[in-house]
């Protein structure tokens, strides 16, 4: 069993070892601190000046990463809390992403911006957000998210092979969970980009859920309760690539689809997934796709208030039950 | 443009009023109590204590007026308590209990109370403080913004200083230069100096090495008066020391370094200077904080967020 944060750490070690053109920049990423969430532990001791603790300068470090990438190397930039990626919005969207195509010929920009993301830790309104939705639909920009099922090394390699900037979201609670752990009721398999989590031998599901990495455990909790207490069989699809929305396999026969998204309501990833699915599933769906999102609200610091705003297992279960009732 | 106060003549008897001592010790015991609550698993999220730096806001508080606006940051409990001695409201906010200053929504880093406002995104407050100062110019009031040395990495700081200088607004930037940002020493994250950066914008700069509240005030008072009267921006840089971890349990400094930092603490010096009076007030404030902790811990959770999260009405003004 490996903790997700340790798995990510190992993947960064392996990547920097195998590819000397990879640099890593971010606030407090160097040893002995090793990053606010310890994901970069050991890297500065091992790879010297290819790993740099930076000043508090999110905009500029994203730009420096883009510069290293433009000059033929590869860069990983860590934004300490993904909320602060807002400070790098210009560098990411107006320079890094656009420069891949705005000069009339393809310009490779192999840049990965790592974003520790999400709430349920009581950090309050500016340290708990899921900002994925703000980056959807930017030409030249791809969004990925860490999941308990995808190999982080493969994902990093894929992102660099795209030769265009990628945001890589990593849920802060997921860091503390084990890789590949679905509990005893569920099995999983990964096909291409998408992990499928299912009840072994349960037959066709009543509902197929789609979610991103940070919500996997809350969604599995909901699926467990739906199975044991409501006798509803659910299957879960977890893409690592969030945008462009990848092909989600096996939905043709799904009686119902529910997309679960930790972002707050309004202009959401869930809506983007539904938009991608409607033309494909039109005529087969028995009812509209259910979208579950966090409330249209800032994220309170007090845990009991935060819980009400962010998607929890209970919300997911209630939404599925209501849709199928 | 730089006014450098002489290094503190380590006065064996720093004269400090009862009121200032009370304020210093209230903050000290409040912060210690928070770390204890964290250890007991009673607090969630994170907290940034200002242990060692308490004298900065205490020295400033007497120079600030009720109509001044104060902007604070992640390390803001001392900033708040020096201005509003309301440990109950602050603790309730941090613990998410009834009577919380901001309904438990903001928590430790996001407080808006009367003319005190904090936010957890570094550098964000300086342009806002400049806007508030623009509005206050000519009234005699000023906007005071506390920032750390590390926060000088953020571009917003310079954009704000430029406008503050061009438009001559009453902006008092208080820099708590504790030589470190989270885990990164200032020496590897700041090129040049804060003094030279202020000078580049034609902004007055005042350096303070003293930890003596009265001495600091005496040097600062005429400069703060000028901020109000001219009006004009001023950068006041305190050489200070962070005694505790950045947040909790994340101190990677060497034991020698932490020992060195402890030597500069005002606490023992004030205790030695006037042992009997210090012990009395220290005990008083410790008991006070203990009572506050017990009382606030017994309160019910802050009520559901709907009221706090509702859309503001146009009349909702500070
Ligand atoms: C924009 C932004 N980037 C990063 C952080 C995370 N962070 C919080 S405090 C801090 C260090 C701040 O250092 P400094 O300004 O010196 O203040 P100090 O903590 O020393 O009081 C960092 C990196 C943040 N809150 N906001
Ligand atoms: Mg500092």
TrEMBL record, chain A:
Its cofactor is thiamine diphosphate. InterPro entries: PDHB_mito-type, THDP-binding, Transketo_C/PFOR_II, Transketolase-like_Pyr-bd, Transketolase_C. Its EC number is 1.2.4.1. It catalyses: N(6)-[(R)-lipoyl]-L-lysyl-[protein] + pyruvate + H(+) = N(6)-[(R)-S(8)-acetyldihydrolipoyl]-L-lysyl-[protein] + CO2. It is an enzyme of class 1 (oxidoreductase). The pyruvate dehydrogenase complex catalyzes the overall conversion of pyruvate to acetyl-CoA and CO2. SMART domains: Transket_pyr (SM00861). Signal peptide: none annotated. Residues 2-177 form the Transketolase-like pyrimidine-binding domain. This is Pyruvate dehydrogenase E1 component subunit beta. It comes from Microbispora triticiradicis. GO terms for molecular function: magnesium ion binding; pyruvate dehydrogenase (acetyl-transferring) activity. Keywords: Oxidoreductase, Pyruvate, Thiamine pyrophosphate. It holds the Pfam family Transket_pyr. GO terms for biological process: pyruvate decarboxylation to acetyl-CoA. PANTHER family: DEHYDROGENASE RELATED, PYRUVATE DEHYDROGENASE E1 COMPONENT SUBUNIT BETA, MITOCHONDRIAL.
UniProtKB/TrEMBL annotation, chain B:
Residues 25-272 form the Dehydrogenase E1 component domain. Residues 296-318 are annotated as: Disordered. Keywords: Oxidoreductase, Thiamine pyrophosphate. Pfam families: E1_dh (PF00676). Its cofactor is thiamine diphosphate. InterPro entries: DH_E1, PDH_E1_Alpha_Subunit, THDP-binding. CDD domains: TPP_E1_PDC_ADC_BCADC. This is Thiamine pyrophosphate-dependent dehydrogenase E1 component subunit alpha. It comes from Microbispora triticiradicis.
């Amino acid at each position: 069993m490996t903790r997700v944060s340790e798995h990510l750490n190992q993947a960064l070690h392996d990547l920097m070892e195998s590819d000397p053109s990879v640099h890593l920049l971010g606030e407090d990423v160097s040893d002995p601190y090793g990053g606010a969430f310890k994901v970069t532990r050991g890297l500065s001791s091992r790879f010297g000046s290819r790993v740099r603790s930076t000043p508090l300068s999110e905009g500029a470090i994203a730009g420096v990463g883009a510069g290293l990438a433009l000059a033929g190397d590869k860069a990983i930039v860590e934004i300490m809390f993904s909320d602060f990626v807002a400070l790098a919005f210009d560098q990411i969207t107006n320079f890094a992403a656009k420069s891949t195509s705005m000069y009339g010929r393809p310009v490779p920009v192999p840049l990965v911006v790592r974003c520790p993301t999400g709430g349920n830790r009581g950090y309050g309104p500016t340290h708990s957000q899921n900002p994925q939705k703000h980056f959807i639909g930017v030409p030249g920009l791809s969004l990925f998210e860490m999941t308990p099922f995808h190999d982080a090394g493969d994902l990093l390699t894929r992102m660099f092979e795209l030769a265009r900037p990628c945001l890589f979201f990593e849920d802060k609670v997921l860091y503390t969970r084990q890789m590949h752990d679905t509990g005893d009721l569920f099995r999983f398999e990964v096909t291409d980009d998408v992990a499928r989590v299912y009840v072994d031998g349960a037959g066709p599901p009543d509902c197929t859920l789609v979610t991103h990495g940070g919500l996997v455990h809350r969604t599995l909790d909901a699926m467990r309760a739906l199975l044991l207490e409501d006798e509803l069989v659910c299957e879960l699809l977890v893409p690592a690539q969030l945008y462009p929305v990848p092909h989600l396999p096996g939905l043709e026969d799904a009686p119902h689809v529910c997309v679960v998204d930790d972002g707050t309501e309004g202009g959401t990833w869930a809506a983007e997934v539904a938009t991608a699915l409607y033309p494909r599933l039109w005529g087969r769906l028995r009812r509209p796709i259910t979208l579950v999102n966090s409330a249209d609200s800032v994220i309170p610091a007090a845990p009991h208030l935060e819980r009400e705003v962010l998607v929890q297992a209970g919300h997911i279960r209630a939404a599925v039950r209501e849709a199928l009732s | 443009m730089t006014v450098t106060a002489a290094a503190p003549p380590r006065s064996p008897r720093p004269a400090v009023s009862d009121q200032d001592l009370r304020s210093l010790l209230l903050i000290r015991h409040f912060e210690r109590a928070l770390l204890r609550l964290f250890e007991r698993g009673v607090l969630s999220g994170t907290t940034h204590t200002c242990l060692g730096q308490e004298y900065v806001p205490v020295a400033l508080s007497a120079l600030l007026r009720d109509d001044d606006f104060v902007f604070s940051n992640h390390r803001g409990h001392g900033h708040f308590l020096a201005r509003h001695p309301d440990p109950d409201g602050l603790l309730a906010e941090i613990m998410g209990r009834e009577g919380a200053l901001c309904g438990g929504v903001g928590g430790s880093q996001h407080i808006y109370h009367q003319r005190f406002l904090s936010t957890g995104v570094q550098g964000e407050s300086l342009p806002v403080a400049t806007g508030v100062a623009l509005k206050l110019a000519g009234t005699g009031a000023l906007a005071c913004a506390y920032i750390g040395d590390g926060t000088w990495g953020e571009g917003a700081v310079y954009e704000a200083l430029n406008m503050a200088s061009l438009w001559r607004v009453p902006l008092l930037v208080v820099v708590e230069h504790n030589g470190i940002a989270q885990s990164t020493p200032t020496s590897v994250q700041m090129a040049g100096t804060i003094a030279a950066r202020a000078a580049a914008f034609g902004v007055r700069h005042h350096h303070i090495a003293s930890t003596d509240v009265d001495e600091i005030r005496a040097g600062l008072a005429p400069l703060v008066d000028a901020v109000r009267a001219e009006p004009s921006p001023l950068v006041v840089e305190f050489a200070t020391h962070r005694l505790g971890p950045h947040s909790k349990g994340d101190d990677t400094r060497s034991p020698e370094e932490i020992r060195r930092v402890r030597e500069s603490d005002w606490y023992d010096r004030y205790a030695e200077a006037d042992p009997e009076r210090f012990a009395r007030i220290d005990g008083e404030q410790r008991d006070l904080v203990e009572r506050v902790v017990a009382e606030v811990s017994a309160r019910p959770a802050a009520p559901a967020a709907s009221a706090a999260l509702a859309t503001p009405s146009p009349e909702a003004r500070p």
